[in-house]
Amino acid sequence: MDLKITTGKNLLTIPTLVEIAALWNRNAVGRHGFYPWDADLLQRALVTCQEAALILEARDTSGLLGFALLSWMQEANYTPGAALEAILVDQDFRGRGVGTLILQKALSLVDKLAGNSRLVDALGAWPYGFALTTLADGSERSGVFASEDGLLRLFQRHNFQLARKSLVMRTPAGDRGAELPLGFTVKQELRRDSTWLDRVFRNRELWNHNLLDPRGVVLSNAIYGFMPGETAREGKNLFSLFGVNTPEYAKRQGYAILNLRLLLGEIARIGGDLLEIHVYADNQPALGLYRRLGFQPVAETIAMVLVR
After folding, report:
1. CATH top-level class for 171-298?
2. % helix / strand / coil in the chain, to the nearest 5?
3. Does the predicted TM-score (pTM) go above 0.90?
4. Among residues 141, 155, 219, 269, which one has the fewest Cβ atoms lying within 10 Å of its Cβ?
């Protein structure tokens, strides 16, 4: 078995991307609702960060056995680190040490190419990665699914530690009996910001759902979007909530839950069936809010890091 490292402009080699997309589609699509890849999608993800990313491929005479996507960034407000954005082994070759070999090589490359990285983020929500494959399915899921025992054990054997647990929660869309106070309005607008979230979804639409007081001041902002990956897998129109922001002057007045009730009605109006949220398991205030709206856990994810 050979390991091949692809970096820089060679990342955009179409035959390699075609093989990687095919392996992903055979092994990941349908398992967790991950969105199908193609060479064009991968090219768009890689083109802006060619010098800060690499693909690590494991091959034998039969072809591609597995791969990893690795990136590193030196953002001013973030700890210098590397992001292992995806690691995948063909299901027919699991249990043969392929994943171990890929991970060990990836870690040695971090030492060689990004020696000042102080952490390695394993499939978590690293905000400046080039692909963010945990989001490429169209849902904000960071970390390893708790059901993936083999992958969790692989990281643990290489001294990765639990960073944080998260819950994936859902609730049906529909009218929750929300009424706007006199003079209040709702404004929806397509997001054109430059946050990491907008960058990840640069080829799809994200929306702001804003609750405004009579003066037009924003009291609550909810960010949401349509999720094609799970929709295609389940046959239900799934939307995801990516954040609820309430200014300090408007907190503890019920504006966030009012905004979400209105949003659930709007999603139902446009044909949505479910709204999904990814929330930290230790964020009790947020969990309380979402449970009041009928959100129930459907999965758990575990973000892991290797502190260096």
Report:
1. alpha beta
2. 35, 30, 35
3. no
4. 269
Nearest to 173 by CA among 221, 226, 252: 226
Task: Read off the tokens for 131.
Answer: 């692909």
Place of tokens 């995801």: 240
| Arch. (CATH architecture) of 2-137 | 3-Layer(aba) Sandwich (3.40)
Which residues touch 174 (CB under 8 Å, ≥6 apart)? 264, 265, 268
Helix (H) or strand (E) holding 222: strand 218-226
pLDDT per residue as tens digits for the range 90-120: 999 998 999 999 999 988 888 887 666 667 7
Q: Boundaries of CATH 3.40.630.30 in the chain? A: 2-137, 171-298
How many residues does this entry show for the chain? 308
Question: Do 136 and 37 meet the contact criterion of CB atoms below 8 Å apart?
Answer: yes
Neighbouring C-beta atoms of residue 204, cutoff 10 Å: 12
Amino acid at 102: I
CA angle 226, 197, 137 (to 5 degrees): 45
